[in-house]
Amino acid sequence: MTTRFDKLGVIIAAIVAYAAFAAPFATLRANRIVPGEARSILEALPPTLGPLLLAVVVVAAVVALLKTPLALRLAASVVALAALALLIGVAGSFLTPEGNSFARISPASGFWLLIFAFTLLLADGLTRLNLSPSARIGVLVVAAAAIGLLLVSGSWNSLSILKEYANRADSFWAEGSKHVTLALGSLAAAVLVGLPLGILCHRVEKLRAGVLNALNIIQTIPSIALFGLLIAPLGWVATHVPGAASLGIRGIGTAPAFVALFLYSLLPVVANTVVGLAGVPRAANDAARGMGMTERQRLFGVEFPLAFPVILTGIRIVLVQNIGLATIAALIGGGGFGVFVFQGVGQTAMDLVLLGAVPTVAMAFTAAIILDALIEMTSTRRREAQPA
Amino acid sequence: MIEIEGITKRYDATTVVDDVSMVIEPRTIAVIVGTSGSGKTTLLRMINRLVEPTAGVIRLDGADNRSLPGYELRRSIGYTIQGHGLFPHRTVAQNIATVPVLLGWDAARTKRRVDELMTLYQLDPQAFGPRYPHELSGGQQQRVGVARALAAEPNVLLMDEPFGALDPIIRNKAQEDLRAIQKRFGTTIILVTHDMEEAVRMGDKIAVMDAGKLVQYARPAEILAKPASAFVETLVGASEKPFRLLSLGRVRDAVETGTAEGEAIPADVSQRDALAELLWSGRPALPVTGADGKPLGRVTVDGLVKRAARPA
Ligand SMILES: Nc1ncnc2c1ncn2[C@@H]1O[C@H](COP(=O)(O)OP(=O)(O)OP(=O)(O)O)[C@@H](O)[C@H]1O
Ligand SMILES: [Mg+2]
């Protein structure tokens, strides 16, 4: 007899079984910094909804476990995720004692494991669907819209992370825009400098090894150390170069964070530009020269478009990396979502840490999906380069 | 006219092209043959200055090819690169339009020319124009490569093994087309090939290269009849020589008076094909008819065999 179990489904079902019956679904704390008490699904939800959620996740886990049609698997994962997203909000209001504004309810390990398991099921299904790049962006937009709707509707407002948000809504958006500016600005600067540098390295072989090695060394300096290293020179620039201080250049703050992110970004951009240009078929370059293109025409008309997907891969690496690294800028007063993370760590307020971490992860994830789709779109028709 | 004078190319210590001199008359086809690595491509690329010679001069219609910037020179010379070298990110139509666009032709004129060339090479402009090179067969890619080289109606065309990837039937057709285009536009062509058969069919003159040296440069009949060295002899293929010689002539030049039984042979068939037909049908002679269908006389096995012998 052949096995009727799906391999990934076995793992998903095991996780679901543990998360639903053994792990806590939500945590209840008297205020934002004391340790919490665990609540299971049945304890955290009203008597009708608790068993309902259990039934939904069990059925979805069975669908995952058995070899079932793809559409059914996708539907099961979406329904389970939607139920979890809605009911965690319900748990928030259900567990909050009447009129108590200090109590904090947050999702616990069981909830996160269930989300993880069904996201796995969804991702597996979507991979098997083999979606086109634009369809993947479409799925992303739908998911983002659903989450946005839940946020706006207020059904999560009783959860701890949103209570933290409510207390500092203004600074959330201010730090958020600083975070984005840091990540995107340093990326833009790295592309502006790294692209020509990569082209130069491609053309001048003598330069290549030296530049790439230097950038490699920068890449290995721990970020905190790099911030530290930059404090002295930037402080010197601020006091000795007229006008620098008024541009916001200082030993601490946004400037060193920006410079550090920029330096980290250079290696992927330069290296991928070099690799991309080196991968342009020799015959295409040869033909370009043979047809009478000037060096400029060949660079912009042939080499660059053919190397573009690889260069874009470098940009993707940098963007995702910068979104994450920008968190650390807060340590030297550079702002960004890291502000909440480090404040939260200082106050041992986990919810505040999450207020900084969750949007950062979401942004990195979104950037990765969008750029992967872009890379695929630009490279499909070039993927099958001609034989030599 | 292309005059190559004392051209030498050295890479470090190795001499790749060694003191080659030859003159290619206007409106003729010169074919360069030789073993792999003998310097054919390098010689060809020194004409459009993709490779700069170590010594020597190349003149095109009397003017030194260094009197123009390299890119301008190359826009005026058609070039099909070994292995077609189409731009993978550009459509077939865009590929063919490369040089016209570089020369700043207006869009309508460019499109007209592209459509004309695609039609000539039996690639439907509607169906193939918007495709990318990887969506074409190897033979189609190669035809696009030739069409791209012809796009700006160059006087000089350099072709590096342009028909390598074609099957025998399409290759024959492509060779005939090239001959027709060459006649019509009076193009001067230098064609590199490995294939002696192709060299004899296509060349007004054949240049044989060996280890960077030009060992013989002569009309096909002379190469076949009087190979300058053992190397040329081997390249020609001793056992093939009589048939190659016959393939140079047309039946109209071998017609004898008299009549014969059997199916008539058209006068513009090659003598080689005529001999094959005679041997296959088992007859000593067959009638010959002109293009208008009128009988011209007959062709005989004896007569053709005499012609296949080494010329005096
Ligand atoms: N850029 C270069 N640097 C060093 N040596 C080279 C270079 N280009 C070509 N050669 C050498 O010159 C010789 C002749 O090369 P070329 O490409 O002209 O040969 P070919 O006759 O066209 O051969 P094939 O029939 O295989 O195409 C070869 O030995 C090759 O290795
Ligand atoms: Mg060659």
Automatic annotation (TrEMBL), chain A:
The chain crosses the membrane at residues 46-66, 78-96, 102-123, 135-159, 179-200, 212-237, 257-278, 299-319, 325-345, 352-375. It comes from the Bacteria. Gene3D superfamilies: MetI-like. GO terms for cellular component: plasma membrane. Keywords: Membrane, Transmembrane, Transmembrane helix, Transport. It is a multi-pass membrane protein. SUPFAM superfamilies: MetI-like. GO terms for biological process: glycine betaine transport; transmembrane transport. It is found in: Cell membrane. Residues 176-371 form the ABC transmembrane type-1 domain. The keyword Plastid does not apply. Belongs to the binding-protein-dependent transport system permease family. This is Osmoprotectant transport system permease protein. It comes from Mesorhizobium muleiense. The lineage of its organism: Bacteria, Pseudomonadati, Pseudomonadota, Alphaproteobacteria, Hyphomicrobiales.
From TrEMBL, chain B:
Keywords: ATP-binding, Nucleotide-binding, Transport. Gene3D superfamilies: P-loop containing nucleotide triphosphate hydrolases (3.40.50.300). Pfam families: ABC_tran. SMART domains: AAA. InterPro entries: AAA+_ATPase (IPR003593), ABC_transporter-like_ATP-bd (IPR003439), ABC_transporter-like_CS (IPR017871), CBS_dom_sf (IPR046342), P-loop_NTPase (IPR027417). One of its GO terms (biological process) is quaternary ammonium group transport. The keyword ATP-binding applies. Residues 2-236 form the ABC transporter domain. SUPFAM superfamilies: CBS-domain pair (SSF54631), P-loop containing nucleoside triphosphate hydrolases (SSF52540). One of its GO terms (molecular function) is ATP hydrolysis activity. Belongs to the ABC transporter superfamily. This is Osmoprotectant transport system ATP-binding protein. It comes from Mesorhizobium muleiense.
